[in-house]
Specification:
Radius of gyration: 14 Å
Number of helices: 2
CATH class: Alpha Beta
Number of strands: 6
Shape: globular
CATH topology: Alpha-Beta Plaits
Number of domains: 1
Strand content: 35-45%
């Protein structure tokens, strides 16, 4: 089966950013996204989701490379100075490119 090249952009950050990240993704042309609650730890401490302000989310976006780059650049510039964030991309092959 033939696949079509896209980028998977993963943004892991504080749950307080969820609505802003959704708005930003739509602004930059993302057609869809998936968000899940996650737990973990890093240089800014542990996030165990025991209370609302301690929650983290993982947002996954599949899109064109250019969209992923612009969105990632915006998220880093806008939120990284004040929020715990991790971003990464990887290449993916999708079966229905019209969805992305």
């Amino acid at each position: 089966m033939q696949t079509h090249a896209k980028k998977l952009l993963v943004i892991i950050g504080e749950a307080a950013l969820e609505k802003k990240l959704i708005r930003d993704a739509r602004t930059f042309g993302v057609h869809g996204y998936t968000i899940t609650d996650v737990r973990g730890g890093g240089e800014r401490g542990e996030r165990e989701a025991r209370w609302e302000a301690d929650r983290s989310i993982e947002m996954k976006v599949i899109c064109d490379e250019a969209v992923a780059g612009r969105l990632a650049q915006h998220v880093l510039a806008s939120y990284a100075p004040n929020y715990a964030l991790t971003l990464f991309t990887t290449d993916v092959g999708v079966f229905r490119p019209q969805k992305f």
